[in-house]
Amino acid sequence: MVDYRIDRRSGVATYVQIVQQTKQALRLGLLEPGDKLPTAREVVEATAINPNTVLKAYRELEREGLVEARRGLGTFVRRGLNTAPAESPLRTELEAWAVRAREAGLDHDDVDALFTAVLDTHFKGDES
User: pLDDT tens digits for 1-50?
Assistant: First the structure.
């Protein structure tokens, strides 16, 4: 199951954060086809957001063909995006790099800016 973390200061709409976090869990293989997403009620209790926001996010994921709502049962993953499994050698290398970045005195925003700059250099036009 995925635990949603809402950053109210990010400037990113709450429903978009839920969509992004769900997609991230799918990419990492933390959610797989057949897995059940938390109910809107569970997300609301954990994050103190409006239930309609959760439903909007789930509808967006359904529109993209990633999940399906089953009346009376919940919302289930239809397909994964796991091209970068959570337990991959690349993740291990990235973990080590993050440790070195922190030891070098970089904070979260510094690492985010540096990583985004590198991604933009190597993945121009590849956004999906």
Answer: 789 999 999 999 999 999 999 999 998 888 999 999 999 999 999 999 99
Radius of gyration of the chain (CA): 16
Q: State pLDDT tens for residues 54-76.
A: 999 999 999 999 999 999 999 99
Q: What are phi and psi of 11, to 5 degrees?
A: 85, -5
Three-state helix/strand/coil letters over the chain: CCCCCCCCCCCCCHHHHHHHHHHHHHHCCCCCCCCECCCHHHHHHHHCCCHHHHHHHHHHHHHCCCEEEECCCEEEECCCCCCCCCCCHHHHHHHHHHHHHHHCCCCHHHHHHHHHHHHHHHCCCCCC
Q: Domains, the chain, ranges and CATH?
A: 14-77 (1.10.10.10), 89-122 (no CATH)
Q: How far apart are CA 55 and CA 45, in angstroms?
A: 14
